[in-house]
Write a structure and sequence with these properties.
The chain is an alpha+beta fold and 168 residues long. The chain has one domain: 3-Layer(aba) Sandwich (Aminopeptidase). Helices cover 27% and strands 33% of the residues. It has four helices and nine strands; from the N terminus they run βαβββββαβαβαβ. The protein has a seven-stranded mixed β-sheet with strand order 1-4-5-6-7-9-8, with helices on both faces. A hairpin with a 5-residue loop joins strand 4 and strand 5. The radius of gyration is 15 Å and the shape is globular. Bound molecules: coenzyme A. The site of coenzyme A has 18 residues, from strand 6, helix 2, strand 7 and helix 3. Coenzyme A (COA) binds next to strand 6, helix 2, strand 7 and helix 3.
Length: 168
């Protein structure tokens, strides 16, 4: 990552990127199947974006799902944080959407870094589902750990939204 002069964002290509993306999703989220809103979604079954450096090394990914004017941000991950990768991916997603489209996403109560990241970029909280992660662990994905980031018990889903006309 040292010496990165520019971050470019291109479309995710299943043929080129899947093996790398599976590894990143395993490391960050415990696999490509994400539990949210009481359902599992395959983060690699939807379109996505890949951030690369000036030597074409992959730096991060963002997967999304559009339904009319709504766009779910299914997953976003940077292989190394605080280097501008997440912001570049989010800006590239916004550039692909129409003014006024709504981006929404689900995160968890322990993910303070993500809550900070999104709110610093104009997102606001729009829902809390207390105990939803506990339910997913019971019904959908037993591998979800009991303890999340910063040693915080992993229990709840939080939903955030951004209307794309708002500046990042
Ligand atoms: C959430 C996540 C995608 C953010 O990506 P990121 O690449 O770290 O984001 P950025 O680097 O663009 O921005 C993060 C901060 O680093 C700062 N930053 C960027 N480049 C920097 C640099 N060279 N030096 C110091 N700080 C820098 C940004 O200004 C930003 O701070 P701010 O919010 O105060 O403006 C990343 O933390 C991640 O992969 N988390 C794990 C997976 C995850 O939880 N995903 C979200 C699930 S809901």
């Amino acid at each position: 990552m040292a010496g990165v002069t520019a971050i470019r964002v291109r479309d995710y290509s299943p043929a080129m990127d899947a093996a790398w993306a599976v590894g990143l999703l395993d490391e960050m989220f415990g696999g490509r199947l994400q539990a949210r809103r009481g359902q599992l979604i395959d983060a690699l079954g939807v379109p996505g974006l890949v951030a690369v450096d000036d030597a074409d090394h992959r730096l991060g990914m963002l997967m999304y799902q559009r339904v009319a004017s709504e766009c779910e941000l299914v997953a976003i991950a940077a292989s190394r944080g605080r280097h501008g990768v997440g912001t570049a991916l989010l800006e590239a997603l916004q550039a692909r959407l129409a003014d006024g489209d709504r981006i929404w996403l689900v995160t968890t109560n322990d993910n303070l870094d993500a809550l900070r990241f999104y709110q610093r970029r104009g997102f606001s909280l729009c829902a809390l589902r207390a105990g939803a992660v506990d339910d997913s662990r019971r019904r959908l994905k037993p591998s979800i750990s009991l303890t999340g980031a910063y040693g915080i018990p992993l229990r709840d889903e939080l939903e955030l939204e951004l209307h794309t006309s708002r500046k990042l």
